[in-house]
Amino acid sequence: MFFFDTSRATRKVETEIPESEWVARAGKGDEDAFVRLAAHYRPRIWSTASRFARTRPELEDLVQDLLLKLWRGLPGYRSDAPFEHWVMTVAVRGCYDFLRSNRRRRESESLVNPMERRDDRDPSDDRARSRREAWETVSLLLERLEAKDRLVITLLDLEERGVRETAALTGWTESNVKVRAHRARKKMREFLTELGLEP
Fold first, then answer.
1. SS3 readout for the chain
2. Suppose 169 and one of 54, 92, 123, 160 were both cysteines; which one would form an S-S bond, judging by CB atoms 3.0 to 4.6 Å apart?
């Protein structure tokens, strides 16, 4: 698989050259220009992908796949929308495709908790244990949702994006986002009841 090594680029796109120039160069096949853009956006892509991956290797593979989608899609990018918005749209839709295609295989794997810190692993720490238990409950509930339901809950509730932004990223209407979120939350409450936990 083609690997984008973003370590050879700075974290931020160089200020003396506007981002639009890097985008134009990358769109024409300039790999170095794309690597600079990828280094800049990789933390945001990583953060979004971490909501969907179950293991660290899976997360790393997913991020590489998303970068590859961006690379392949760049010739079709039109500057009528901000580049950052296009990047995140490709990332979110790529995560949705990943969820759909990997659901069965991943049912028994544990979720990567992007919030976990080293001190959270101390079993004697009550706060850490509570955080861990809460995250395990959330991940269990999310795993039982269909891919679209899980995507909308992740964007709205975990990433705290607005309805309008969620609609733009997914390509759904705002009404569809609201209805799907309402139904997904209802399903999650039902799952909690099944587990013997109060919603």
1. CCCCCHHHCCCCCCCCCCHHHHHHHHHCCCHHHHHHHHHHHHHHHHHHHCCCCCCHHHHHHHHHHHHHHHHHHHHHCCCCCCHHHHHHHHHHHHHHHHHHHHHHHHCCCCCCCCCCCHHHHCCCCHHHHHHHHHHHHHHHHHHHCCHHHHHHHHHHHHCCCCHHHHHHHHCCCHHHHHHHHHHHHHHHHHHHHHCCCCC
2. 92
Q: For residue 15, what pLDDT band results from cuts at 50, 70 and 90?
A: low
- The tens digit of pLDDT for each residue in 93-139 reads 999 999 888 765 554 444 444 445 444 455 556 777 777 777 777 77
How many domains is the chain built from?
2
Could you tell me if residue 4 is inside a domain? no
Say which CATH number the domain at 170 has.
1.10.10.10
Do 178 and 87 lie in one domain? The reply is no
Q: For residue 122, what are the domain limits?
A: 118-199
